[in-house]
Amino acid sequence: MILHEKISAQLPEWRERIKSLVKEHGDVKVDDVTIGQVIGGMRDIKSLLTDVSFVDPAHGILFRGMSIPELLKKLPKARGGKMPMVGGLYYLLMVGEVPTKEQALEVEIEWAMRASVPDYVFKMLRAMPKETHPMTLFSQAVLALQNNSAFAQRYHTMSKDVYWEVALEDSLDLTAKLPMIAAYIYRMKYFDESGKPRYNPRQDYGMNFARMMKVSDKKGYADLMRQYFIIHSDHESGNVSAHAMHLVGSALSDPFRSFSAALNGLAGPLHGLANQESLAWLLEVKEKFGGIPSREDLRQFAWDTLNGGRVIPGYGHGVLRVVDPRFTAQMQFAKAHFPEDDMIRLADLVYEVVPEVLKEQGKAKDPAPNVDAVSGTLQYHYGVREFQFYTVLFGISRALGVTANYVWARALGMPIERPKSMTTKMLEGAVAEARQPA
Ligand code: AMX
Questions:
Q1: What is the DSSP letter of 100?
Q2: Whose CA is nearest to atom 37 of ligand 1?
Q3: Residue 302 C-alpha to ligand 1 middle, in angstroms?
C-alpha cells in the first residue's frame, strides 16, 4: 500500500536523526519551566515532538509546513468538486509530501475497501438510551471496534520494528469507518432511522459522508465537508484530543482505544464544543434583534456578554495571535456559496465588531476569531441543526491527524509518557530558595 511504502522509505533516516538527538544531544536545553506553567496546565512548555503539523502564532496552522490556502490549492481535487480529496490530505499528513492525484486516489480506494462496519456496532448503538450524547455514542462505537484491532491481536507476537506497520493498518481501518458510524448516529438519533448506510467506492470520502448524512442533495455540502475534514484534522500535539491520543498510545494501547480516549477529551466544553456555543450566541443575537442588528446594537450586546462574566465564543486562542486561517477558509467558502445567508452576514458583522470590543476590554491576548466562530453556522445553513452533533464532525476530522501522529510515534519508538509531579510544599520550597536575598 502506498502509505506503507512511502513511510518505510523514509524511516531509516528519521530513526537516525532521532537516535542522534537523544544519544548525542539529549542534554541540550529547549525550555525552562515556571511554577505558573506547572499550575497553569503546562501552557507553552515545549515537551512534545511532532512533524505532522505546527501552530505558528503569527500564521496559524501549518500542515507538514504548508498553510491552509497552499494546501487547498495544491492537493488534488475531488471529482466534480472544487475542494481537495480528503485522501490526499491523509497522504500528506502521513508521508509529508503532496500526493499526485493517483496517490490520493489510492488512499480513497483503501478507505472504500475498509469502510464497512460490523453489525454488532450498530446493534450496540441502537441499544443505548435515546438521550445518549452523540459523542458518547461515537466514542463507544470506536471502542467497540477495538475487538478487531490488528495491533492488539498481534502485540505479543510482533517485534517493535513493525509496530508502526500494524498501527497504520488499524489507522486506515479506523478512519475508513468513521464517516459511516457518524452518519448512522446522526440518522438514528435525530430521524429514528435504523438502516445501515452504504459506502460507494466510486465516490470520495467527502461525498460518501454527505450522501450517508442525506444532505448531499443540497449544493456544496460534500465540498464543505471535504474542506472541514481537511482544516480540522490536526493542530499540533498539545491540544487535549491530540495529547490524549498520544498519551494513551504511548502505553501501547492500540489506535482504537487511544482514539476513543481522544474523543472523550474532544467532547469537553473547553475543547471541541465551542463551535456550538458560538452558533448559539449568534442565534441569541438574531433572536434579540429580530434579524441582523446595527453595529451599535451589536457592540452593546457584546459588551453585555462580557459584563455578564461570559466569554464571546469563537474569539480568542491559546496560541494564535492572528485571525485563524481556518476561520478565513470557512468564511470564504460561505461567501462563495451563500453570501446572502442571514447567519453568515451576521457572523461577518460580528467579525467587524467583536475584535474591537475585545481590544477595548483589553483582556484577551488574541481578539481575533478562531476556527469555531463560523463552522457551526455553515452546518446550520445546510440544515444540520442538531448542535450536539457538531463535535462528532470534529472527531472524524481529528482522527486523521492523531492517527498520523500515532503511526509516526510507533515508527520512531516514542517511549511511554511519564512527566514528574511535585507537591505544593515542594513548589513553596522552590519559591523560598529562588526568593532568598543574594
Ligand atoms: N471573550 C471574553 N474574554 C476572553 C475571550 C473571549 N472570547 N478570550 C479570552 N478572554 C479572556 C480570558 O477569559 C482571560 O480572562 P481572565 O484573565 O479573567 O481569566 C483573558 O481574556 C486572557 O485570556 P487569554 O490568555 O487571551 O486566552 P486563554 O489562552 O486563557 O484562553 C480561549 C483561550 C480560547 C479558551 C479563550 O480565548 C476563550 O475562552 N475563547 C472563547 C471560547 C472559544 O472560542 N473557544 C474555542 C477555542 C478553539 C478550540 O480549541 N476549539
A1: P
A2: 316
A3: 14
Residues 238-242, mean pLDDT to the nearest whole number: 96
Catalytic residue numbers read: 271, 317, 372
Distance 427 CA to ligand 1 centre (A): 27
**Residues 6 or more apart in contact with residue 227 via CB below 8 angstroms:** 72, 83, 329, 330, 333
CA distances (Å), 44 to each of 62, 95, 237, 422, in order? 18, 27, 12, 19
Binned at pLDDT 50, 70 and 90, residue 269 comes out as: confident
With a Cβ cut-off of 6 Å, ligand 1 is lined by: 271, 274, 306, 311-318, 363-366, 370-372
On average, the pLDDT of the chain sits at 96
Q: Which CATH superfamily is domain 274-381 in?
A: Cytochrome P450-Terp, domain 2 (1.10.230.10)
Q: What is the dihedral of CA 311, 259, 208, 191, to 10 degrees?
A: -60
Give the pLDDT band of residue 219 (cuts 50, 70, 90): confident
Say how many C-beta atoms besides its own lie within 10 A of residue 412's C-beta. Answer: 16
Identify the pLDDT of residue 218: 67
| pLDDT digit string, tens, across residues 347-373 | 999 999 999 999 999 999 999 999 999
Domains of the chain by residue range: 274-381
Cell of 77: 481535487
What pLDDT does 171 receive?
98
For residue 116, how many other CB atoms are within 10 A of its CB?
A: 14
